[in-house]
Amino acid sequence: MSDPLAAALAAEEAAIYAYGLIGVRLNGDADTDEARTAERTHRDRRDVLVSLMSRLKRSAAPAPAGYQLPFAVTDRASALRLAVHVEDGVAQAWRACLPLRDGVDRGTALAALTDAAVRATRWRDRAGVTPVTMAFPGRAG
Amino acid sequence: MGKRDNGRTRREAFGVAAALGTAAWTVTTVAGCGLLGDDSEPAPAPDPLQPILDEALGLVTAYDRAMATQPDLRDRLAPLRADHHAHATALAGLIGTDLPSSAPAAPAAAASAGTDAVSGLRRAEKQAHQSAVAACTKAPADRVMLVGSVAACRATHTEALHR
């Protein structure tokens, strides 16, 4: 996808879809609260992108009804793994928006990148994955 | 036509030579002023990312010190230290400079922690995050993704040190 804003929108849509699946596999108030907050944040960012793109008269592919998951989500462990995966994907998409001169302001893109990176860190911690951080959040590979 | 030398009269040729001589003297004088005058050559402005690189190196020192005084924190702190070192290497590459061979000073926020090394590091990370955010706002398009990742990473460190 060549338009970074459209890619960010697709990543936010994918995250919203994923948190629907993640939520049902989590147990404990802390996990589910975290997932609920995450989903709400991704919905807000999706809404910002939708109105931004309509203002810029940019087209975006409609969100698919379902997604091919990278692995089956069957329990808490795989749900946490998916949460890390989607936050990493969101971070990558927003990082690519940082150099844009028009459309989204840099502060918004950096806040979204940072937010996704911090959330991925929390999910890694909950999943017992180490290290919990990565040197270059949003950089693929 | 015998008066002409390569199409010019002798007087014209002399005039040109005299003018050239004056010009050469002027150039020498100007260069001489530069060499003999009071160090008027302006020092090159430091790269705007140099403070972010210095902070990364300072944080490496701060983590080294914390791990030396509290070896039980090594597992938790070593990956965070490695992130800062990776930042320093990437930033030095971008700036076109070498990493210093001696360890720079740790940030004051980390040093003032007393026995609680983790809360000192957390304060230093928070400050370093704020300066990386400011640098990201001003960075040119070809540098902004690296600086953005450095800023985001410093925020994740604050989070990691909260646990």
From TrEMBL, chain A:
The lineage of its organism: Bacteria, Bacillati, Actinomycetota, Actinomycetes, Micromonosporales. InterPro entries: DUF4439, Ferritin-like, Ferritin-like_SF. Pfam families: DUF4439. This is DUF4439 domain-containing protein. Coiled coil: none annotated. Residues 5-140 form the DUF4439 domain.
Automatic annotation (TrEMBL), chain B:
It comes from the Bacteria. This is Uncharacterized protein. PROSITE patterns: PROKAR_LIPOPROTEIN.
